[in-house]
Amino acid sequence: MxxxxxxxxxxxxxxxxxxxxxxxxxxxxxxSLLVCDQPGAYVIERAREAEISTFVFNAKDYPNKEAYExxxxxxxxxxxxxxxxxxxxxxxxxxxLLSEYEGRIINIHPSLLPDFPGKDAIGQALAAHAKWSxxxxxxxxxxxxxxxxxxxxxxxxxxxxxxxxxxxxxQEIEHKLYPSILQMLLTKGDALQNEKARAN
Length: 200
Ligand code: GRF
Hints:
Layout: E1 2-8, H1 13-23, E2 29-36, H2 42-49, E3 54-56, H3 65-78, E4 81-86, H4 95-100, E5 105-109, H5 121-127, E6 132-139, E7 149-156, H6 163-199
Parallel strand pairs: 1-2, 1-4, 2-3, 4-5
Antiparallel strand pairs: 5-6, 6-7
Helix pairs in contact: 1-6
The structure holds 5-O-phosphono-beta-D-ribofuranosylamine.
5-O-phosphono-beta-D-ribofuranosylamine binds next to helix 1, strand 5 and helix 6.
C-alpha cells in the first residue's frame, strides 16, 4: 500500500472523509502523516483521534518557505510518502516541495476551475451570481489553483442559495469524490507499474 500525506489548515472534514474511507477499506492507502500550518486547527484533533502522526508548524518560526518546506520534505522522505493530498491547505506550495514531488501533489477546490480560484471560492461564486459552481480536483503546480484538472463535478446554485447551503452541497460532493479519486490514482499507479514490470 502506498503512503500518503495530507496537508490541511482548518476543520479537516475532507481529512476525516479520507480517514473514514481508509477505515472502511474503500481506499487502500497508509495515512502516514498530517501536515498542518495552523497550531489551533481542529484537523489536528481529528488526526489524534485517528492516531495519525502529525507535523504542525508555524511559518513565522522559519526564515522563509524554503526552510519549512525542506523540513517537510525530510519528514515525507523519512516516511516514504508517495503522494501529497492537499485538503484545505491554505498556503501556496513552493518550489522545494514541487520539485521533490512533481506530478504527485493533488488539491481539491470548491469551484469549477478555472472559475473562482484562490480564497473564498464559494463567496466568489455567490457574489458573481453564477448559476453553477462545483468541485475540482487537480494536480498542483506553482500557480494558485492552476494545475491540470483530474475531475470536475458541477453543483447548481439556486435562486435562494445561501453560503451555508452551497457549502453543504459542495462538501457533500467533496467527501465522496476525494477518496474515490485517490483510490483511482493510487490503483492506476499500480496498474502502470505492473504493466512496466511485464514489459521488462
Ligand atoms: C474544502 O472546501 C476544500 O475544497 C478547500 O478547503 C476546504 C477545506 O475544508 N480547499 P475542510 O477543512 O476539509 O473541512
